[in-house]
Design brief:
The chain is α+β, with helices and mostly antiparallel strands and 166 residues long. 55% of the residues lie in helices and 12% in strands. It has a three-stranded antiparallel β-sheet. It is extended and about 65 Å long. The protein starts with 13 loop residues before the first helix and ends with a helix.
Amino acid sequence: MRHGKKVNHLGRTDAHRKAMLSNMASSLILNKRITTTLAKAKALRTYVEPLMTKAKTDTTHNRRTVFSYLQNKDSVSELFREIATKIATRNGGYTRIIKTGNRMGDNAEMCFIELVDYNATYTAGKAEVKKAKATRRRGGSTTKAKKAETATEAPATEAPAAESAE
């Protein structure tokens, strides 16, 4: 029975596993995407996402804590400068795992693990999403505002068409 055994040991000793995950996390932070096996990617996700949550608040204590995991000054500074600003509004789920098929030599299941906000393929179609105001029961003023917006938008769409005809 495997009660309470959440850690995938990946067939390695404790020190080897920690060093491997530290190196993989540093590579992921610096390169934004790495290719690895599915088991290692799942283990890396549980390793790196709490570090990214800590990076949201830039304090000396959080920097030292993250450095104790990563052991790489460049990746720590990259995490706290560039990545933390991009993930500031995200509540979790900073990484994405995309399966790519099996490896030729040993048939291991391979995948990409990447930072969600850095993939241009998925983020290009989406614009900044603004949160809508909470609606109230008495929405008289909001309906008037919506009618006024639609009235002002209609002439704006006709004007460029007239200019292009000339």
